[in-house]
From TrEMBL:
The keyword Ubl conjugation does not apply. It comes from Candidatus Anaerobiospirillum pullistercoris. This is Aminoglycoside N(3)-acetyltransferase. It is an enzyme of class 2 (transferase). Its EC number is 2.3.1.-. GO terms for molecular function: aminoglycoside 3-N-acetyltransferase activity. It catalyses: a 2-deoxystreptamine antibiotic + acetyl-CoA = an N(3)-acetyl-2-deoxystreptamine antibiotic + CoA + H(+).
Amino acid sequence: MSTDFTYTEPIFSFDNQNFGFNDLCCVLQEVGINAGDDICVHTSLMRLGKILVKPNIFLGTFVAALREVIGPDATLIMPTFTYSYCKQQVYDVRNSPSTMGILTEYYRKLPECQRTLDPIFSFAVSGKHADDYLHAKATSCFGSNCLYDLLTKRNGKIVILGDKRTGYTYDHYVEECVQVDYRYYKTFSGTTIDANDNEFQSSINYYVRCLDRPSTFALSGTHYVLEHNHLSKAMSLGGGEILAFECAPFKEALSELLQHDAHRWLI
């Protein structure tokens, strides 16, 4: 696979308007993505419009636009969650498919990308700081030294591309940092096959929901924190939208809400 395309042609259309590489670059910049940013991009592309090109060109153009905007001194991250150990499956770094949409599956297979070893919540990474994210050691999915923790310390950003109603897994990281009382640690164990085909047994803690009470932090709570504190920028993109926010100030604001008013937002 390659991301070397001619980017002048439109890749999708909506309401008789065409969108291509330059449009993607412009909207990313408008929501605050800059050169040098480490970004984690959650995607849901099917709402954007009618696809006009072959799948690899469509997907490759998104990757190319993201890289164009952040430049060479940055890191591009996408979630490639598998939930393998939760489903009592082997986690195979090279072969376990991502459950997070077609762009993430395309991205993780690019030759320059590497994938983290988390057997539940893995990420595909490439760019300047990729090795830092890959080699971080965390004992729980969203605990100290997890990918979101490192992204926050690097002043990274979350990008929601396509549908701003989805893609807020970062909330779980903040919930674990705060140690909310509606979640608890559960250990999952299984078999992992790494990128070099080495097979080994491992265990990881996951701060799971209590199933006997309301324990899902509502999307409305996330949007309240973002909007009330003026932390995000959003724009329409075809039939969907794009939203971005900085991790560190969002973590601070959400932590405060969870410590004082979490149960108001549980469903």
